[in-house]
Specification:
heterodimer; A: Four Helix Bundle (Hemerythrin (Met), subunit A); B: mainly alpha
Chain lengths: ~200, ~120
């Protein structure tokens, strides 16, 4: 147990059932496929406009990108802790961690708002060039997913508060958690693509 | 008492084992979160300080793949679960970062393949 914890290896016990139900995983896969197509479009357009796309990231607010990455990773941590609390039957603790997730989601929206305002002040908008068109398309689409994720977290909180979930049966909450992690997974690829790689 | 209400027959060693497992779960989540933050900050530092090169592209893409695997395995909790969902999720991060790296390092090839 100690070895598997320290080296982050899966425990050598029989395979458990996956969290959430198959419908949630189909939705998660549909969303991931949608973003994968955007990434491929980004790579193709970049190949045809190398100069534009090597300058693009230098014109963005890297601090905002880093901050939002940290915020989203922290929000995923909060969701994981909320699920862990529910597995122990601690609904109050679960709700606190879900509040933390909502706070992180709000912080993400605030940073994104600041970043768009910063771009606007620097004279960049979605029509500036192809890089910025794709940047706004990808990031605004992701922002909409964060908003939907926040609504589902809120719904999960209401149901947790009214006792719809228990230590033994909380599949709905697992679905909510998986959707939120999907949003984080997408950002893990958006961040290097838009802000880091030159 | 809480365990009794669930109707589980728990003796002291089992309770200790469950407590230790949960304690490790929490520590593991914290460790994974810290590793994710370190990779993110490392990538950002690389972006700001290093000259663009093939090595930077490979390191950044490997970092993204590792972050994806950590989130899927430990924060999503898919490590040790049925392979169908687990591997379908992992395949996303085994495929896309290498595709991004190849497209970044060989833009001429991508241009040639996508020119009508």
């Amino acid at each position: 147990m100690l070895a598997s914890t320290l080296f982050l290896r899966p425990p050598s016990t029989p395979l458990r059932a996956s969290p959430a139900n198959i419908a949630v995983w189909i939705l998660v896969w549909a969303e991931l496929t949608e973003f994968a197509l955007f990434f491929i479009v980004f790579l193709v357009v970049r190949a045809h406009n190398p100069e534009l796309f090597s300058q693009g990231p230098t014109q963005l607010n890297t601090q905002a990108g880093v901050l939002n990455t940290i915020i989203l990773l922290t929000s995923s941590f909060c969701v994981a802790r909320a699920m862990e609390a529910m597995q122990r039957g601690r609904k109050k603790s679960c709700l606190y961690w879900l509040w933390g997730t909502l706070a992180m989601g709000s912080a993400y929206l605030a940073v994104k708002g600041w970043e768009y305002h910063w771009n606007d002040a620097a004279g960049f908008d979605s029509r500036t060039n192809l890089f910025f068109t794709l940047y706004y398309y990808l990031t605004f689409n992701h922002l909409l997913h964060v908003l939907v994720g926040m609504c589902t977290i809120g719904w999960g909180m209401v149901r947790t508060y009214y006792g719809y979930y228990s230590q033994e049966d909380h599949e709905g909450l697992e679905g909510v958690a998986c959707y939120w992690h999907m949003i984080d997974l997408v950002w893990i690829l958006i961040f290097p693509l838009l802000y880091v790689l030159r | 008492m809480a365990y009794d209400r669930l109707g589980l027959d728990l003796n002291l060693p089992t309770i200790i084992r469950i407590t230790v497992t949960l304690m490790f779960n929490r520590k593991r989540l914290m460790l994974v979160w810290l590793i994710l933050l370190i990779i993110t900050l490392g990538n950002a530092l690389l972006a700001e300080s290093a000259e663009p090169s093939s090595w930077v592209v490979l390191i950044v893409c490997a970092g993204a793949a590792l972050k994806g695997k950590l989130v899927i395995d430990w924060l999503m909790g898919l490590a040790g679960t049925e392979r169908a969902v687990h591997w379908s999720m992992l395949s996303y991060f085994y495929l896309l970062p290498p595709i991004i790296a190849i497209a970044w390092l060989f833009p001429d090839l991508v241009e040639r393949l996508t020119t009508l």
